[in-house]
From TrEMBL:
It comes from Adineta steineri. Gene3D superfamilies: Endonuclease/exonuclease/phosphatase (3.60.10.10). This is Endonuclease/exonuclease/phosphatase domain-containing protein. InterPro entries: Endo/exonu/phosph_ase_sf.
Amino acid sequence: MLRKMIDAHVGSVLTSKPLIHTHTYSRKPQIRNRQGGFLYNDSNESLVTIHYNPNTVFTETKSELENAEKHFLIDDQILWTPCPSDPGKGALTVTTASGLSVINAHVPYDNKAAFSLLKNITWSNNNNPFVFVGDINRNSSAFMKILHEIIGDKSCSNLLFPITTDKPTRVGLRRDGTREKIWIDFYIVSASLKNLAILPVEVYDNIGDISDHYPILVQFKAM
């Protein structure tokens, strides 16, 4: 669906073709009671990171990449980090030729399992641009506490900062069937990006019932 949507916009909204990085893995999601009932047709989950640069031409052919000297996007370095104690969770890291690292993760709800995943991720130890985002399954304070344990309080406080939202980012159902909105999604960015973030972070909370998480968007000023 994403590929069809992107192809339909190349030449109008998009000046060139983005590069889509995808990692698909099998999950065993828990089926919970909800209105209308729900069954999983496919237990696979995909983490997807789209790299788009309007100034870079990316052209695919069946046998080769044309104009390779212009294709900075193909120099992206990709790394998949599985969760050792929960095979249904993990992190997809994309590092671009410019030095930007984007980590797209599904972090386990259980703190012990989360720790086992997060300690295997390469966290920023310098001022290079760095972004961590995804289904983090906890608020920013709880997440930063785990990071402090993993990489050291001083380093974490000086190099990594949470970018939070002004509106709830997730809606769920309480045991009594009523809806509950909570703040659970945010960004972690490096010091080099902290002051470039355009606030407030936008929360798309009018998407209907297609997900229990609302899409969130943070934009940065040009460096």
